[in-house]
Amino acid sequence: MDSDIPYEELRNDRLPWGYWLVADEDGVYNKFLDDEGKAWSSVREALWIGRLGMPRVHVKDMNLALEFLASVLAVIDRRTIGVEERVHSVFAKDWGMDRFYAMWLIQQRLIAPQSVSGLTLDCPLTPEGLAILVMLASTRSIKDSPLPLGMSWIRARRGLDHGVDRKAILDLVERQEAFARRLDYRLVRCELHKSPAVKMIGIDTRPSVPRSRTVWSMVHTDEYARDRFYLWAHERIDRWEQWGRLARDDGAHALTSHLLGLRFCDERIAAG
């Protein structure tokens, strides 16, 4: 497409992006031909490589990037998601990534800056940006489609696990927690100061009414990091009573040091 001619003057901007591609079945693969005769395996690939100029990558990585792009465009074009959302929360208030992605969208002519200094995701979509959003929303996979585009999709993909196999991990952790409830000293997942954490609960041996109390806790980066630590610790469940007594008798810092030693002391040091 000629970069000097607006998209809406070359294409019907009321239709999804890529409506002009022609399906060509060669007997082996389904291909989509563009105006220049180039063949693409999908409309999404035509957008990713042919229009955006991005590298050829695994289809899974391409779709993740395009789902993120569609979610950002959906947040910008708020009418497509029906609720008011703060655009800056897309990048969790990361000023650098927010500005960089806005510059990239402007360079790709998918959003229109309101002024010379208007490098912000609050800029409106261009007609082509909206056409791309419609196409991406219409070509989502069965796996992605249950999760709405916008902040719902972005929040679900945040964290160290990027949302992969999240339900399976949660089911596993919940089964492990159910098994550990009978122990005198046990690790449980919780929230501390609005952050995901793990704490060690043990029996209070002071001369009073028997009850449980927290003897140790640790805050983690996100829920995935917290659950990964919990599963690592659960593989050593036979040591929990010893860990609990260590924290009770010598203090929480003693257990923290002990766990760090267990995790790293047996790893070789790379000397070059």
CA distance, first residue to last residue: 50 Å
Estimated structural class: alpha+beta
What is the count of structural domains?
A: 2
Fraction of residues in H or I helices: 40-55%
What profile does the largest beta sheet have? Answer: 3 strands, antiparallel
Number of helices: 10
H-E order: HEEEHHHHHHEEEHHH
Which strand order do you get reading across the main beta sheet? 1-2-3
Model regions low in confidence, pLDDT < 50 over at least 5 residues: 80-88
Over all CA atoms, what is the radius of gyration?
26 Å
Beta strands, count = 6
Percentage of β-strand residues: 5-15%
Q: Estimate the global geometry from the Cα principal axes.
A: elongated
By oligomeric state, this entry counts as single chain
Overall residue-averaged pLDDT value: 80
Describe the fold and architecture.
- By secondary structure, this protein is α+β, with helices and mostly antiparallel strands.
- It has 2 domains: 7-157, no CATH class; 166-264, no CATH class.
- Helices cover 42% and strands 12% of the residues.
- It is built from 10 helices and 6 strands.
- It has a 3-stranded antiparallel beta sheet. Strands 4-5-6 form a 3-stranded antiparallel beta sheet.
- A hairpin with a 5-residue loop joins β2 (30-33) and β3.
- α7 packs across α8 (223-234).
- The longest helix is centred in the first third of the chain and has 18 residues, at 59-76.
- The relative contact order is 0.08.
